[in-house]
Predict the structure.
Amino acid sequence: MVSTRSTTSDPGSGPTSASTGIFDYAPAPESRSVLNLRSSYGLFIDGEFVDPVAGGSFKSISPASEEVLAEIAEGDAADVDLAVQAARRAYTRTWSRLSGRERGKYLFRIARILQERSRELAVLESLDNGKPIRESRDVDIPQVAANFFYYAGWADKLDYAFPGKAPRPLGVAGQVIPWNFPLLMLSWKIAPALACGNTVVLKPAETTPLTALLFAEICQQADLPPGVVNIVTGAGETGRALVAHPDIDKVAFTGSTDVGRQIAKTVAGTRKKVTLELGGKAANIVFDDAPIDQAVEGIVDGIFFNQGHVCCAGSRLLVQESIAEDVLARLKRRMTTLRVGDPLDKNTDVGAINSAEQLAKIRELSDVGEQEGAGRWSPPCDLPSNGFWFPPTIFTGVTQAHRIAREEIFGPVLSVLTFRTPAEAVEKANNTPFGLSAGVWTDKGSRSLWMADKLRAGVVWANTFNKFDPASPFGGYKESGYGREGGRHGLEGYLRWDAS
Ligand code: NAD
C-alpha cells in the first residue's frame, strides 16, 4: 500500500479516522464465488454467442487490480452488419408483430431475472468497472431492474401514452453506451426500445463489456426471440460502424460531447432518429439558509459517488460567501472519513478509476488546476499500489476562468467557487457550455423554484442530488445533448406517428 497525503494542512479537518484508528473497519469483501465468469466471450448475435468475422479480441481488466478478467471479441463493420441483419429479421418477423402485452411479458420476465441474479450482476459490475459494491448492489442493479419493470408496464399502453397518435415502432435501434454505469445505461437504452416494439444492436464500452454479456445470457434465459437484442463488443471503431450502418432507424448514444458531435455529423441528412446524452459540469449551489450537514452529504454524494464518473456529477460547488468557511471545514472533515479502496469491500465508499486513460486525464486536469493557482486538498488516504486510483480532491479559490471550472474532469475532483446573491449564483451556474443538471440547497421552497426556473439544466435537484427514478425524464440542454431518456418522454425517441 502507498499513501497519499494532503497537499495542504487544514486545522478544520481534525484527526482522521486513519490517525485515531477509532473508525477502522475490518475488511468485508463480497465473495466472487457467485460469478461464473468465462475466460472468453463472443459477440451476441441472433440469440447466440458467435466468433467475430475477423477474429479480433481485446481484454477486459479489473481497474482495481489490473487483473485480466476475460478476453472479449472485437466486432468490426462485418459483425455489425450481421447484427443489424439479425435485428431487422427479428423486427419484421417476430417482435413488431407481437402485441404490446406479449412484449411486456418478456420485459417483466427479464426484470425478474435481473432481480434474481442481482448479486451476481453487482459483483461483476464492481469487478469490471471499479465502482464500490455498495453502489452497484444498492443503486445500479436495483435501478436496472426498475427500468425494465417500468417500461414493461408501458408496452401495452402506448396508445394511452400518446392518445390519438397511433404510435408505431421505428425498427432497428443502434445504441452506444459509456463505461460509468454499464448495465444501468444498457437498461436506459434497451428497455424503452423493446417496449415500443423495436429491436436493438447495442455496443457497450470497451472497458466494461462484461455485464452487457451477462445480460445477453439473461435474454437467452428469458427465451427472448433471437435477434431482438444483439450485443456487439468493441471500441470506438465498432461504435462508428454501428452509427453509420444504413439499415438502422435510430441512434441512441450516451458518452462524451466530442463523440456526440461526430455522431451528429454522421447521421445528419439521413432518416435516422437520434438522441444524444452527453457530458456535464453541474453546479451544486448551497445558500446560507441551507441545512449545512445535509448539504455536505449532498456535496459528497454529488461528486464522490461512482468516483465522480457521473455525467450529472455536482463537480462545481457554488457556496454562498458568508458560509463558505464553515461548509469547507465540514466538507473536509467529512472527506477524511471516506474509505477509498477495494470495490468489492462492502465498506468502501470510493472505488477505482475506470481506466489508465481516465486516470491520466484526471491527473492532467488536476495539475492544470494547481498551475492555474487554485488550492488543492485531499484527505490523507491509503491508495492500493496496483490498479488506477485517485484520492477525493477539492480545489478552492477557483474562478470561472480556470479550466477545472469549465471542463468535465469525470473524476473525484470538486471545484469550489463562491457567490453573494442568487442572481450571481444563476449567472455562474449557467456560465458553461453544458446543461445537464444542477442542485440547489436552501430552506426556502420559493427560492428553489425561482432557481429551477432560471437554471439551464435538464434536471434540478432541490436539497438532494443524484436521485433517479425510471418515471422521471433525464437529458440535457446545450452541449449536454438532446432528447430525453426515462419516463414517458423516453418512449418518444423510439416511436413514430407520421404517415411514413
Ligand atoms: P466516449 O464518448 O469516449 O465513449 C462512449 C461510447 O462511445 C463508448 O462505447 C465508445 O467505444 C464509443 N465510441 C467512441 N468513439 C466513437 C465513435 N466515433 N462513434 C461511435 N461510438 C464511439 O465516452 P466515455 O469516456 O465512455 O464516457 C464518458 C462520457 O459519457 C462523459 O462525457 C459523460 O458525461 C458522458 N455520459 C453522459 C451521460 C448522460 O446521460 N448525459 C451518462 C453517462 C455518461
